[in-house]
Amino acid sequence: MLASYRSIPATSAVRLSKPTSNLFRARTKRDAPGLDTSGLTGVLSVDPDARTADVAGMCTYEDLVAATLPYGLSPLVVPQLKTITLGGAVSGLGIESASFRNGLPHESVLEMDILTGAGDLLTASRTQHSDLFRAFPNSYGSLGYSTRLRIELEPVPPFVALRHIRFGSLPDMISAMERIIDTGGQGGTPVDYLDGVVFSPDESYLCVGRRTATPGPVSDYTGKDIYYQSIRHDSPGSNGAQGAVKDDRLTIHDYFWRWDTDWFWCSRAFGMQNPAVRRWWPRRYRRSSVYSKLVGLDQRFGVSDWVEKRNGRPARERVVQDVEVPVERACEFLEWFLATVPITPLWLCPLRLREPEGWPLYPMRPDHTYVNIGFWSSVPASATEGATNRMIEAEVSRLHGHKSLYSDSFYSREEFDALYGGETYNTVKKTYDPDSRLLDLYAKAVQRR
């Protein structure tokens, strides 16, 4: 990797060259070669006694989980999609249903080796180059690239028992979420995993997971059955309160990847939820990385826009976003969104930071619950570029939330710096990338360079 860095002309921006990406923002085509990451894809070691793993920066969570589960261990947070890399989850943030108790993936990093924009390979931790360590999350490769990470692991038994609890009222659902987080349990039973899905204002679910070693039958959502559809059931409670509960069980492996097979619910765009199509779609291609490549081809050749135009319909605006809002404003955002943006379902994932110091490039209040709300679809485009995305940005800011930067953003430079630690970022950038060999974060996230 160092050799490829040195081969890139000083006048060219340094970027990664990698086979997969979970970013959803257009970028200008590059002329210079990217950094060679071919040697940074594996698990270097697993220490079952210390409950740690040393992992190369481009190692996917799919490979990491495969290496740790034989020891009865897993990362503290396993992001939802198999091809998300350790380096990507740390520099670009990640989240999953353990985040209400374990925070975000970068919070379980003990140390990491970083190739900086100055061409130095440094080990950063809470005590060594701590300014770089703390500014690295949400820097999206603009401060450097992680080549090795040492992370914490936690014990996991073989199975997860699930309860899908239906609510007919968004306030009741959010209140139940808060109770689970505050007590660490539900109905006297400890809760290890917690997320949810909103289908409409009067149909939402909390999906409560409890780890267990008790053997028994398990479901399989890699075949004809579809996970998100399995959540739904009848009988909401009276007056919108908690209603019926549906129980399920998965292996711990299948629980981690329950959303990957159908890319949450986005596989429907490819006909994958039509039984006739699903029957003939090879199982090995039922995964998010395949759908992501299909989306990339569509964007490259403009197939969807051509179809819309041919049928006399307006072009579509892509609305693919994850936002975090304080839990006390979550209902307000959900009600606004459902009344304003024609997209459902919505994914909910609560989180609390583990560390009281926080992380400067994605400032959130320590000891406070936030709710990640994910929505991934499109709406009819208007005359103003990104009109719906701009509305969402404004509403999230009004509610004192944040938006992840993996997709399209439209902030002004002033707004962006205020939201994403601009003062700290600029100081660290000058220290570790004084010649600006790496693109600036605003240039990447908003200007799409």
Automatic annotation (TrEMBL):
It holds the Pfam family FAD_binding_4. The keyword Membrane applies. Its main location: membrane. Gene3D superfamilies: 3.30.465.10. It comes from the Bacteria. It is a single-pass membrane protein. It is an enzyme of class 1 (oxidoreductase). The keyword Disulfide bond does not apply. Residues 1-156 form the FAD-binding PCMH-type domain. Its EC number is 1.3.1.72. PANTHER family: 24-DEHYDROCHOLESTEROL REDUCTASE, DELTA(24)-STEROL REDUCTASE. This is Delta(24)-sterol reductase. It comes from Mycobacterium parmense.
